[in-house]
Amino acid sequence: MKRMKKLLFVSFFLLFISCETNTYDELQNHDNNTLLLKWNKAYPDDTIDQSLIGLKWGLSYVGAKLPKTLNGISTSNNIISIDINKLGFSESAIEKLTKLNFKIKESQEYRTTNTIDLGRYITLLLGASEHYYEITGTPQTLTEILNRYTLLPQKGYIDNSSVSFENRIIKFSEQNGFTQIFLSEEVNPVSGEIFEYETIELLPNGQLRFGIFDANGNRKNNTDASHSNAGKPGKCMWCHESNINQMFSHQNDYAGYLTYNELQNTLISYRESNRKQKLALTDGVDFSQSQQHTLTELLYISFMEPSAERLSLEWKMPLTLVQGLLSNLPTHIYTEFPFLGNLYYRKDIENLAPFQGLSVSSSVREQSEIEVNHLN
Questions:
Q1: Which UniProt keywords apply (predicted)?
Q2: Could you say which of 39, 76, 114, 368 would form a disulfide bridge with 362 (CB–CB 3.0 to 4.6 Å)?
Q3: pLDDT value at position 23?
Q4: Domain limits of the chain?
Q5: Which residue ranges in the chain fall short of pLDDT 50?
Q6: CA atoms within 13 A on the CB side of 278
């Protein structure tokens, strides 16, 4: 009898511990669904409202539908709170973002300030290829992607690309709502050898999903610089501006392929059809304001190349003290956005920060000397 009571007690105790552990895990997961972002003014005309638009576009790039019926983003002074459960992400994306949030909250920056710099967060989403791939659900292999589509027999040939140093064969599927793929094969014009592949797919929220694959069809972080200037998915986002691009230079015609005019008209037709569908969406970013994507770019550019004024806000230090710390470092002007002021490179100043944030890749758009993956 005593032995039975003991077994019952042990069983009850184990059940209690199990329930307690599950509850703790649930609390942890719930906690990691929310994140606090700190907005740091980066240039004279910068406002938190503009940065909120940039944040929404950044979240949209990685698949957020941003339903208007849910309040997934709120602000208080210069602090932005996001709840990834209310941003219209897929379950798989939420799982990845929860893991990233956990890593962020373990950083010295978050433990010290209870926030992550908004620019750092956007850089982690868009500037780390593996983060982008995992959150958007890009498969590991080209085969997995192509199995979802039926490519049309028509195809185009590019021999004067403004991006690739090789020739390109362009294949595509029919457009069915927000379902379509474009496949680019980077080929040697003489031998026909394929060096790598690039894919563009349509996401349900109106954005494009980019993929880069090696000659064997395995996912990779960036294109080979000896074959292409396409860089990382972050550069594809910047170049395409959420659009199916037409050709920007004339191409020669080849037997067995669409003529230059036929391919150009096909691409324009798909682009306009996709544009009409995007404008009809009731949730998400405002695709009629296409230049708003620049506000996302300014978030990661001003973080990766900050001014002393921005660093003063980020580090919570007097400007004169920051300027003293940086006095031996050279400055530069960002040609496209000179209003950002005299800038430093993040890699040169990160070790001077009073606290360390979760590390970022050394470039958002180009092949990175340091390429982070906090989801592995």
A1: Signal
A2: 368
A3: 38
A4: 1-29, 142-279
A5: 1-30
A6: 22
